[in-house]
Amino acid sequence: MPERLADEDVTTADRAVPCRVVVCRDCCCGTVKVRGDHAAQTARLREIAPVRISGCLDVCEQANVIVVQPSAAGRAAGARPVWLGLVNDPDATEDISAWVRAGGPGVADRPEILDLYVIDPPRRVGTAAL
Fold first, then answer.
1. DSSP state of 19
2. Which residue has the higher pLDDT, 128 or 103?
3. DSSP state of 118
């Protein structure tokens, strides 16, 4: 995991580009196949950060899938997107929200509870940009 940046290392411009969140909402994620209030989950995440709704991210067995993309400061610290799977309850959504609000990958330490949700991204061309 990348080193956490000290406040004095994060410029005002870096703070202006927050983490972004990608939420899969296609064939399995966000459907009746997976329990949970998907609209509430998306709305909660949108309160904290920009959210992009994605088509299938090709890890259906891990539905619901959320990808937390690092901010500019996080990328500068070497952080990569963090893929989270089986995010199917409000407590997990709150843990993600708290981490993103704190700065997300490369800026804030990931809460240990989220280690339970970390998954490997699929190895395909369509997800390389995440």
1. -
2. 103
3. B
CA-wise closest residue to 118 among 68, 81, 91, 83: 83
pTM of the predicted model as reported, rounded to 2 decimal places: 0.83
Return left, alpha or beta for 95; rule: phi > 0 is left, psi -120 to 50 is alpha, else beta: alpha
Which residue from 95, 90, 93 is spatially nearest to 112, judged by alpha carbons? 95
Burial of 86 (0-12, 13-18, 19+ CB in 10 A): middle
d(CA 105, CA 17): 13
Cα separation, 10 vs 76, in Å, equals 10
Q: What is the pLDDT of residues 60-95, one digit of tens each?
A: 999 999 999 999 999 999 999 999 999 999 999 999
Percent of residues in the chain assigned helix, strand, coil, to nearest 5? 35, 15, 50
Mean pLDDT of the 15-25 span: 84
Angstrom distance (rounded) from CA 107 to CA 56: 28
